[in-house]
Amino acid sequence: MVKGSGTLKTLRMLASGFAMLLILGLVNFYIGYHGWLLVHEWFSGASAVLFWTLFLLVAFAYVVGMIPWPTIVKPLARFFKVIGSYYLACMEFAIIMLPLADLLYVLLGWMGVDRTHYISEAGGTLLILLVVFLVWGSINAWSTVVRTHPIPIDKSIGTSTPLTIAVASDLHLGNIVGNRHLKKMVAQMNAMKPDVILLAGDVLDDSIEPFIRNSMSEQLKQLKARHGVYAVLGNHEYYGGSIKEYTDLMSSIGIKVLQDEVEEVAGTYIVGRKDKTAETMEAGGRLSVNSLLNGLDLTRPVIMMDHQPTGFDVAAQEGVDILLSGHTHRGQIAPNHWITKRLFELDWGYLRKDKLHVVVSSGYGTWGPPIRLASRSEIIKLEVVLEGTKQYSEEAVSTKTVLI
Q: Residue limits of the Calcineurin-like phosphoesterase domain (predicted)?
């Protein structure tokens, strides 16, 4: 029975993989066909074979770059992954804009408008818009916003001095987001003079190899907080498959990765959950919120990191005061944020649920293309005011944004 169940699961995975490849192939054929029409319009003697060879190479460059190639060709594979990542942004742009261009072409025909030069004019316009999209998206991805959330908690740790907590999620350190961007984050967080620094998952962009090769741990080592730096796992650490190596490396630079663990910090509990991915990729799954909080003194503040923004009701019921998540990137590229809004109770920003304060970050780095539209690279600054309920109204719990 178990064997049959495993076989069925494998068949489903294979079927899903085939369906995805088929859809990806059809989408890229649609984009490539329009690209060929424009190339043929501008360069009538162009070779169709050469065009399609180059186009398919670019279209599947990201997949090619992810293949575990021999060491001698890895630099070329990394180059392909970078090219492929930018193509992913171009593909999303094309999926939105090309159907609109086709629809306009049909409408002009119905209206009796001359369409002789339509391909050339529409193609040129779309290329200009694509350049604007890539430049604007790059600026949003690489220029960081610091968002400040004042959080009142009706609890005490024996002092009325606010706790300053610096939070970053979804760094996605790898071949695209590297030491330059990481160095800026370290400087910005240290400038806050935080009591605690929290990294809410997806520090890695799958593979640990570029993290080690580029000595990114040396940059992370520069993070300074009065009571320490803590992190949790995200889904991409699981995808990379090097969790022990990663957690050992982080431990060696003084950053503890909490895996269903609780740390008592300055009279406050820092709770770190394993990512939801553990439920399908680890035999033991992950502990419930109730199990993690069992035995804790809930008269003290409880701050929990859970990479994927789920389970708000449970966290509120169990006595968590602040829940920190990331994962969504707020869609990263519009209009994906319309999708993430429907998938999650809160896909970005701040939410008050009973006594629970939920903050979901759009992330510091990017997955795939270093492009953001209707989303920004961000760092979160929490100003946790203890015994402050009487001093703060609901309206006072707002967000202050600083552009850097």
A: 164-330
Give the DSSP per-residue string, 298-344.
TTS-EEEE-SS---HHHHHHHT-SEEEE--SGGGSBTTHHHHHHHHS
Residue 176 belongs to domain spanning:
145-403
Residue 248 · residue 212 · CB < 8 Å: no
| Same domain flag for 164 and 248 | yes
100 and 248 belong to one structural domain? no
Q: What pairs with residue 356 in β-bridges?
A: 353
Closest CA to 306 of 290, 320, 286, 323: 323
Instruction: State how beta strands 400-403 and 356-360 pair.
Output: unpaired
Closest-CA residue to 176 (of 216, 127, 130, 233):
216
Q: How many alpha carbons fall within 13 Å on the CB side of residue 33? A: 10
User: CB count, 10 Å around CB of 146?
Assistant: 18
Residue appearing with tokens 């990394």: 78
- Residue 149 pairs with which residues in a beta bridge? 382
Q: What is d(CA 69, CA 235) in angstroms, rounded to the nearest whole number?
A: 23
Domain final residue pick, 80, 105, 139: 139
- Average pLDDT for runs of 10 along the chain of length 404: 59 80 91 96 94 95 85 88 94 96 96 93 96 97 96 84 94 96 98 97 94 96 97 96 96 97 94 96 93 94 97 96 98 95 96 96 96 96 76 44 50
Query: Which residue has tokens 């916003």?
Result: 145
Which 3 state secondary structure label does DSSP give 77? Answer: helix
Query: How many structural domains is the chain composed of?
Result: 2
Give the helix/strand (H/E) hosting 68: none
* 106 lies in the same domain as 74: yes
Cα 223 from chain centre: 21
- Phi, psi of 391, rounded to the nearest 5 degrees: -90, -20
Q: What is the pTM of this model?
A: 0.89
